[in-house]
Amino acid sequence: MPMPETFGSQPPLELIRQLLETGGFYVFPKLQWKNIHDLSVIAACAPPGGGRQQMSARLLSQFRMIALPHPSEGDVKAQREALVNAAIGIYNNMSRNMLPTPAKIHYTFNLRDLSQKQKQNFGYCKTMKLTVEAFERTPLLYGDFLDLNAPSTNRLYRPMQNVAQIAAILEEFHLRNSFGSSGASSATKDMSFFQESVVHICRVSRVFRQEGGHLLLVGLDGTGKQTTVYLAAKISQCELYRLTITRNYGVSEFREELKTIFKMCGCSDAQKVAFLLTDSDLIQEDFLEDINSILNSGEVPELFDKEEIDGICIDIKNLAVERELPDTQTALYNFFLERVKANLHIVLALSPAGSSFRHRCRMHPSIVNCCTIDWIDEWSDQAMLSVAQMSLAKLDFFQTSGGFNSGNQPDIPVVHDVSVLESRQKALKAALADSCVHIYKNVRIMSSRFYSELRRHYYVTPSSYLKLMKLYSLLYSEKLQEILQNRDRLKNGIDKLSEANASVAVLQKQLVSLGPEIEVKTIETEKTLALLKEDQAAVEEVIELVAAEEKVMTRETQIVQEYAQVR
Fold it and tell me: Do 203 and 216 form a contact (C-beta atoms < 8 A)?
C-alpha cells in the first residue's frame, strides 16, 4: 500500500474508493465525468505491519471482507512429515525471531518464502534422499555446476560440501571464460574464491536455475555483488543484461530496454536473461514501479502497443501451434508472457546504507516479497587473508634472474640456493598478508569508533581492501624498477671505472718499456738545443755586422744625394 501523506490520506486508494462509491471519475484536463459500468474490483492484501501500511476504513467499507488465516501446523504436517516439519520449523523460527527493524526492513516472511524453499528441496530430492542431518549441517551448499561442460538443462542438482573442490572448479571456469575476453571488466578478471564467495555464487546460481527466480542482493558497494552475479550468470548460461545509461535517460528509454529484454526472453529464440540493476542504475524511482510489476505479476501494463503485440504473436505462432494453443491474440500474448516469466531473472543489487533502501522496500513491497534475499556481509579474516595471498603471489621479492648482485662484487654475499630463496619469500609473503589483514581490521575498528564518537559513517568495504593490495603492488613495482635502474646505473659506472683503471695500467706498462728510449731522445734533444744556442749567437753577430754596414751605406747614399743637389 502507498505511504500515507501528512494528513493520513492515500491518493491512489482514494481514487479507487471514489470509483467504487460514485461509479466513475473525472478525466483531465477537460474535467469530464466518465461513468464506469460492469466493473468488479477484487483486492488482496496482507495484514499491516513490517512495512505494509494500514488501509483506510472508508475504502474497506466498499468491499465484502473474507479473511484467509494461515493453515494450522497440523494440517500442513500431515502431508509430508519429515520435510514439512523441518520447513515449518525454520519458517516459524524466522518469523518469530527475525523481526523487521529500521536497518533490516526486509525481514518480512510469508508463505511464498516457504513455497520457494520447498521448490529447492524438491529439486534436491530428485537426486538423493534428504535427511534431517542435511539441514543441520552448515554451510549447506547445493548446485548443478560440478560438471560445467554439460548443458544447464542436463545438469544434476546435488550437494557440494567440499568448498576447496568448488573453488577449484570455479577458478578453472573463470579463467577459461575470462581468457581473451574483452567483455569482462578489470574487477572480474582477478577473483579469489574463498568460502564466502563460493556460498554466494551457489545461492545466486540456484536462483537462476529456477523458473521465474528473482534475487535481491543487499550489501555495501564494493562487497562483490556485481562480480558474484557476473560469474553465476555465466555458470547458469544466462545472458547478463545491464542498462545503457545516457545523459537524458528517462522512463521512456527504460521501457524501450524492457521491451528488448521481454523479446529476448519470450520470442522464438528465447534465452535466459539476468537483468541486473544497481543503485547507480535507478536514476529515477519510477523505474521501480515497472520492476515491482514484473516481480509481482510478470508483466508491465501497456508496455507494448498493438502493432508490437501483433509482431510478437506472429513470431511465436509456430511454437504455440506445437503446444496446441488457441490461435488468438490473447492466447499467444499470454504464452509470450509465460515464457518471459520463466526466462527472466531480476537481480537487484542494492546498498543498505542511508534511507533509500528502506524507502524502496516500503514503497515497493514486491522487492522483498518476490525476491530471494542474499545479504552479503563483511569478509571474514580468512577471506581477506586469501585475497592478500592471491595478490602477493604475483610479486617476486627476490630477483633471482639477474638479481641485485650479478656476482662481480665478491664483498656482497649471494644466495645461490633456490630453495632457500623460496622459503624466505614464502615467509615474507605470509607476514605481509597478515599485516594487510591487520591493517584492514584496525581501519574497520577505527571507523566504528569514528561513528560512535562523531556519529559519522566511514564505510570500509572489501573494495577498499582490494585497492590497498593494488596500491601496494603498484608501489612495489615502481620502487623495484627504481632500485633496479639505480643498480644498473651503479653497475655501469663501476664497469666504466674498471675499464679506465685497466687502460691506465696498460699505459703505465708502455711507459716503463719506453723509458730508455725516452732518455736517449732527451740527451739528443739537449745536444740539439746546445748547438742551436751556438748557431744563434753566430747569427746574431752576423746580423750586427750587416746592420753596421747598412748604416754606412745609408750615410754614403745620403751624402751623394746632397752633393748632386748642390751641383
Answer: no
Query: 69 — phi, psi (to 5°)?
Result: -70, 165
Strands 344-350 and 215-218: parallel
- Three-class secondary structure of residue 194 per DSSP: coil
- Give the CA dihedral 247, 252, 256, 262, nearest 10 degrees: 130
C-alpha distances in angstroms, 145 versus 125, 155, 373, 475?
Answer: 17, 7, 21, 39
Separation CA 509–CA 497 (nearest Å):
19
Q: Mean pLDDT, the chain, as a whole number?
A: 81
Q: What's the Cα-to-Cα distance from 532 to each of 199, 527, 535, 537, 538, rounded to whole Å?
A: 108, 9, 5, 9, 10
Residues 6+ apart with CB under 8 A from 338: none
What is residue 154's DSSP assignment? G
Residues 229 and 276 sit within 8 Å (Cβ to Cβ): yes
String of b and e for 410-443 (b: at least 16 CB within 10 Å)?
eeeeeeeeeeebeeebeeebeebbeebbeebeeb
Which residue, chain included where needed, has cell 502507498?
2
Answer positive or negative: Cα dihedral of 52, 57, 58, 60: positive
The DSSP call for residue 52 is B
DSSP β-bridge partners for residue 33:
26
Can you tell me the distance from the alpha carbon of 170 to that of 176, in angstroms, rounded to the nearest whole number? 10
- Return the closest-CA partner of residue 165 out of 134, 137, 139, 198: 198
pLDDT tens readout for residues 363-400: 888 888 888 888 888 778 888 888 888 888 877 776 64
Please tell me the predicted confidence (pLDDT) of residue 405.
44
CA–CA separation, 293 and 102 (whole Å):
25
Question: Which residues, including other chains, have CB under 8 Å from residue 197's CB and lie 6 or more apart?
Answer: 191, 224, 228, 383
For residues 276 and 266, the answer to whether their CB atoms sit within 8 Å is no
- pLDDT one-digit tens code per residue, 165-187: 888 888 888 888 775 554 455 44
Residues with Cβ within 8 Å of 144's Cβ and at least 6 positions away in sequence, in order, are: 152, 155, 156, 157, 158, 205, 209
In the block, residue with C-alpha cell 529500521: 102
Across the chain, how many H-helices and E-strands are there?
21, 9
Q: Are strands 372-375 and 344-350 parallel, antiparallel or unpaired?
A: unpaired
Per-residue pLDDT reduced to its tens digit, 233-261: 998 889 999 998 888 899 999 999 999 99
Q: How many CB atoms lie within 10 A of CB 349?
A: 24
The pTM of the full predicted model, rounded to 2 decimals, is: 0.66
d(CA 491, CA 500): 14
450-467: burial string, b at 16+ Cβ within 10 Å, e else: eeeeeeeeeebbbeebbe
Sign of the C-alpha dihedral computed for residues 329, 332, 338 and 340 taken in this order: negative
